[in-house]
Amino acid sequence: MKFFPGKANLLKLSGVNSILGIDLYKGIVRVAELSARGGFLNRYRSEYRASAHFSLNLAEALSPSERGQRLAEAMKANGIRARFCVSSIRTVNSRTVIADIPMDISQDSSGNGIRSWINDNYEKLIRVPIQLSELTFDYDILSAGPDSVKCEIAFVRTKEIEEWTGMLNSAGLHVLNLGLDVRNFEFGIQADSQITSGDNVFIFVDSNDYWCTLFPPRKKTEELQPITRKKLRFRDLDEALLSLQAEFPNLGKCIVTGPGASGGSSATVWSPLGLPPEYALSVSLAVHGFLFSDSLGENTKTLDFRPEDVRRAATMERDKGILKYGTLVMGMILFILLSIQFGIQSHLQKISDGLDARLAKASHVYSQVNQLRRQIDVLKTQIDGDNSAGHRSHAARVLHEIAVATPGGVWLYRMTLNQRNLSDQSLELWGYAETNRDAAAYLASLQQDRRFTNVRVVRVGAPTPLEAVSFPSERINNFVTFDVKLGTIN
Description:
Helix content is 38%, strand content 26%. By secondary structure, it is of the alpha+beta class. The strands form four sheets. The chain has a five-stranded mixed sheet with strand order 3-2-1-4-8, with helices on both faces. Strands 11-10-9-12-13 form a five-stranded mixed sheet, covered by helices on one side. Helix 2 runs parallel beside helix 5 and helix 6 crosses helix 8.
């Protein structure tokens, strides 16, 4: 069996941080509740803590539902609220065999190649006259060669599985995995940071049964080799060790655990997470639940004898937990965002209130400034007058300038002022002069005067019939008339 780190545990994503390991053997049930911390992205980096444990005697005469009710009462009495569990069927009616399955069958794209092969060959495997409909089987891939795959295949009576899952269902538990015998105690050993596999031999002792697990030595650059499992029956531990050393000469340190574990000169007792050795399987089952609570593919497959309805119920409960946990997380994020928005709004409102207060204090100053501005506008209107008054004052100034520029001997009888605005205006003059010299001198003076621009003479000469005029002085008998245009008057 190979471990592939780096995948998130869906059970933790559903908000479940506690799992029960339930070991029932010969009427004694041992329960350990484990909680995990960390390992959201890498489940193998989780840290485990035993939060509760207890043992309970369940008479074999009790029905599965009665056993489940007794178990639920004991869990409540010990303050256990976890509802996900991992258990293992320990029965004498199971049968385990090792078989080599052709590689082309194991690589069937439908994923049912190995199961179809077992269905076709189960009689040769178990060699017991029993119908396949009365059995439930599962397999674990031990190793793969170029031509075949070595599998460990286990058969269990379907009736026993139904009784087992019925008991757990009556206790209100959802089963994440239902293994076989004590093989799952390997997970607790591998999850214990105080123990390294190396070339150690691990032995689970239960009365006179010795379940041995050997991890072959390996270097860091090599892949993990297949685990060797053996079930031995001896009178004591020393006899079991002698048998193992005869078969495996290079055995290293021996670590024992389980209800019948006892230390000695040649073995060390493993107490899982500080609990007594008899809870080793319960602790390991719970660790197994954290490591493999979701489907990881055939490369990390372990034996699982849950009926399909039990699988669906556990998956549905896990998915409901993911939905609830995700909703809770999203609600918390939304609450935090709304709190930030409320804080920003409160801060801005506080600033606005401060500005309003300062404006209220300075309102009398602003009112005085506005009053002064209005008074200035009134005075400006009074001084400048309206537009018509401006035009009249400008026309008067033009008449004054023309009168100053007109010398004696020259008279004006007509003047036209064309004015669109103060910067766009023209003036046309008609007049008399006693002599041509006086008229020429007057017109020349207008052209040289800087107060007038664009001076243009229209006509100079004898008066026309329309320009006949009489003078009171008899000395003026002859005269000339002129017509001149001026541009802007500065």
